[in-house]
Amino acid sequence: MKILKIIPGAGILLSLLISAGCTESTSADLSNQSNTGVSASTYSANGDGPSSAQTDADSAHSYPYREGDDIPALAYIEHNEVYNPESVIPPQCYTKTDGVNNPCYACHQSYDSIEKRPNQMGDGTLQGNYEFSDVGLTNSWKNLFIDRTSLIGGIDDATIKKYVKEDNYTASLEKDVMPDYMRIENLSSADNAFDKDGFAKDGSGWVSYNYKPFPSTFWPTNGSTGDAMIRLPDDFQTLNGEYNKAIYTLNLSLVEMALKELDTLTVAPVNELVLNIDVNQDGKLTKSVTEIARSSHYVGDAKAVPLAHMLYPEGTEFLHTVRYIGVDEDGTIYNAPRMKEVRYMKKHMFRSRESLASAYYAEAKDKHFEKLPQTRYLGEKGIDNGFGWTINGFIENEQGELRAQHDQELAFCNGCHKTVGSTFDQTFSFARKVPGQAGWGYINLKEIEDVPNINEEKGEFLTYMERVGGGDEFRQNGEMLAKWFDEKGMVKVEEVQRAKSVYDIITPSPERAYALNKAYLTIVKEQSYLFGRDATLTEATNVLSTIDAEQPPLKPEHRFKWDMRLNWQAEAPSAIAETR
Predict the structure, then answer these.
(1) Phi-psi bin for 492: left (phi > 0), alpha (psi -120 to 50), beta?
(2) Residue 16 above 60 pLDDT?
(3) First to last CA, the chain
(4) pLDDT tens digits, 389-409
(5) Domain boundaries in the chain?
(6) 242: three-class secondary structure by DSSP
């Protein structure tokens, strides 16, 4: 996409239209609540480009904008106008901390150099400090400041139930919209898509894993359900050129050990005699072993590839779906068939720790000289995050069909998958996988306890709520506040600790699920993703619209060292494990 100008708002776009005499069309209500009409008239049905009607309008120099109108999100894309040059600053970074509430620690961390982490971002100072560029001082995520109560009032429960049960992902495969590398047959239904070990039944090589959702944007109670899959290159799946599930399983386990700094993991029974590999490194070959010891290199046809400290091998792929909140007849929350987004990452180039250091340095240098973030666009392949990863994504169009995200919509992904201090090789979920054999299989929140993070004592989600002062970054999830906090605003520690699983802590009531689904559907109808994708029900009150010097930083006692990896207590038996 050719970028004409970089501006924080609509001024230049309006001035261009006015100077060209392009304001004579009939006026319309074009606030960001009414993008629906604009996108329907100016974009083709699949949302990929201008329709014939828009082409005619362009030739006639007629646009539906008047000075003072709020320009719809898709209009910025249509006119190659950058709406938010600082889209890498997520909405959550504008949260009011009031000097004591800290949701920032989950992303922003600085680690001791003795750990030799490839991630050398070191952004712990951003905990409660608003260190933004001049452009970033204005919060461009204006969907946060909309009360959607009236907008969702006209959507009844029966309508939203039917909508979220529709399978728009399979429809995208049938219509040949989804690229081959992002395809898994029957992905809308986990039981049909994966076997008990998490391997895709279609032979695509994708493997699903069970992981603890990152706090708190990815908690179902805050708007979405989701899942994650990993795929390694063919050489990691084969032995002497032939697919071998045991080899693939071992290599997946070695990746997990490299990323998490583990020496051993449990695996499904492996016949060392058949593979001629001493999997558990006990000095002998055995017919059936259930533990793998870390080795210096991968196995099978990838035996020449060394394990790299906290890094994935080149060619590693991730697929992540963000879904609506499904509600069963009995009120059980599950991953709905309908997908909001399908997100994809591929490590197209391996970069060593030293190479990554130069990339982090370049990023810091640009920020020091007040240069705005740069995103390298790759056309239909997505974007390059500058650290060896290609990122791509699909999102719903106005009719609910999945479409490729536009460049500016994809730039949003760099906010989490480029330079964030707490990530592992620019990723989140795999470092949070249930360890070993028990973690291979589709995500199941009922099988995960609220275990603590490494070097922490209390459960991670309990600790998060204590540090944040709420059940979400914005501290406005009323249901979480009522359920887990007392009248003084303190967490009901014992009640949280009595929860059987994280499912009981972070899933919403059916009523809230319906409301959140409806709220997001209004964003879909508006196609206003550039203005924010958070399905807030009412206007955010603990979020800053602009940053000024009066905002207090977090007090030192409210800043925390944190590692997103979890202390699973060496896979100690639990009530959940026993029922698996």
Answers:
(1) beta
(2) no
(3) 49
(4) 999 999 999 999 999 999 999
(5) 91-233+314-442+449-558, 245-293
(6) strand
